[in-house]
Design goal:
The protein is built from 20 helices and 14 strands. The chain has about 450 residues and is of the alpha/beta class. Helix 18 crosses helix 19 and helix 19 packs across helix 20.
Length: about 450
């Protein structure tokens, strides 16, 4: 197979990437700093280098420049976080084959390695034949949750996975839109190819344009071309500048026309998925999003529900994240005591699945004795507001993060109950005193119809 140099100053990530490449059968060298990477480049002249952007003693861009000057035949993959996508694009301009983003998806990394090696001009035909060996990847994780809303989405994914029609995913930040997009890709015939993502908020307009559509001064291919045969997810498309909305509209129109005519070039054969945290229809109505583009990208709309609307999925998600943490740290799966679990299930999760995952990661860091307790959870999850019902001698706990409307409803219900008691337990008299109909009073008390008789 090939010789790969992996460069990262974080030992855990370095080991993870190196192990991923060895699983594919490659010979792997590791470097924990920029200077060490330069020495290994010069001594071994690897077929491929995977290099992190931030190396402590120098940047990954410095290493790529050195590689370009002295080892032009070495393919380069940049590793970066979403906050430094601009530097990753600069790496592409310097001649890097592609970039992958943190947190790493090993399947994406392995596919990118495979494609980078296949693109390399080998010194012999035998080496080339070796590099195009079939790619074997681990089975990707599925979607977590068995609520009716998740079952509906899962059924939709199965029906549309092998279609080429654009998909629009709408839902709050952290609700799992990227997970839905990945699952569409993973169960489709496009799964052997790349799944690429780009946040529209991650780059200034000129670099975003270069990534999507190319530029005369760029040595890199476009993101569409790098995702050829696979899937491209354009996140936060609601933030795409109007000028680029026009270019994207024209591009998708050309793709549709060429596909219909049967002459679609390989570099344009991409499944396009867009996501937005705000309803695009409202932006269209307000004149802040192109109507023609909206109709092109929303042929298959999928609404990704907020976590608070499917509370039955919280426990499976907790179990999933704790197992993943244990696998990553090679430790036992932590237990969650009943009080901490009650807090986790009762919290409103305004940050959705991402907030839940972060809360559990914090809890795992603070937990002792193999068990997560309330004090291990983030303060906003563990802290609650108390609503006291003096007559019944009970206290209602409402987690911080609960919507104001829920708090008002709880207080309103307690006030109605006190008014009924004041009126000798007569709902009719209480309704008259409160100035509402008896039906409204029962509705606010959430009394079932059969109990009103």
């Amino acid at each position: 197979m090939a010789h790969i140099l992996v460069v990262d100053d974080e030992p855990l990530i370095l080991n993870l990437m190196a192990k991923s490449c060895r699983i594919q059968g490659h010979t792997v060298s590791e470097a924990g700093s920029g200077q060490e990477a330069l020495k290994q480049l010069d001594s071994s002249n690897p077929d491929l280098m995977i290099v992190d952007l931030n190396l402590g003693d120098m940047t990954g861009l410095d290493v790529i420049r050195h590689c370009n000057e002295k080892h032009a035949g070495t393919r380069v993959i940049m590793v970066t976080g979403f906050g430094t996508i601009e530097s990753a694009v600069e790496a592409m301009r310097l001649g890097a084959f592609d970039y992958v983003t943190k947190p790493l998806e090993l399947a994406d990394l392995q596919k990118t390695v495979h494609l980078a090696l296949n693109s390399r001009k080998s010194a012999s035909a035998e080496a080339s034949a070796e590099m195009i060996a079939p790619l074997t990847l681990p089975i990707p994780e599925g979607m977590i949750g068995s609520s009716s809303k998740m079952r509906t989405i899962q059924a939709t994914i199965k029906r549309i996975a092998d279609k080429d029609s654009p998909v629009l995913l709408e839902g709050e930040f952290g609700a799992g839109k990227q997970t839905v997009a990945r699952n569409i890709h993973n169960i489709s015939h496009r799964s052997p190819a790349l799944f690429k993502t780009l946040q529209c908020s991650a780059l200034p307009e000129d670099l975003l344009e270069s990534e999507l559509f190319g530029s005369p001064n760029s040595r890199a291919t476009t993101l569409f071309a790098r995702a050829a045969g696979g899937t491209l997810l354009l996140e936060e498309i609601n933030l795409l500048p109007m000028r680029l909305q026009s270019k994207l509209d024209a591009y998708l129109e050309e793709v549709s026309t060429r596909r219909t005519l049967g002459n679609l070039p390989p570099e344009m054969d991409v499944r396009f998925i867009a996501s937005s945290a705000v309803p695009l229809q409202k932006l269209v109505d307000d004149g802040n999003f192109r109507e023609d583009l909206f109709y092109k990208i929303s042929i298959i709309p999928i609404q990704v529900p907020a976590l608070r609307s499917r509370p039955e999925d919280i426990l499976p998600l907790i179990e999933h994240f704790l197992k993943r943490h244990a696998d990553r740290t090679k430790s036992k799966i932590l237990e969650v005591d009943k009080y901490a679990l009650r807090l986790l299930q009762g919290y409103n999760w305004p940050g959705n699945i991402d907030e839940l995952e972060n809360a559990l990661e914090r809890a795992c860091a603070f937990a002792e004795g193999g068990k997560i307790r309330p004090m291990d959870l983030p303060p906003k999850v563990a802290q609650k507001v108390e609503i006291t019902d003096e007559d019944e001698k009970t206290v209602h706990h409402m987690p911080i993060g609960t919507p104001l409307s829920d708090y008002v409803k709880k207080q309103e219900k307690l006030f109605i109950q006190e008014t009924i008691r004041y009126n000798d337990n007569s709902p009719a008299k209480a309704a008259s005193m409160l100035g509402v109909s008896i039906a409204t009073l029962y509705r606010k008390l959430n009394v079932k119809k059969e109990l009103r008789k």
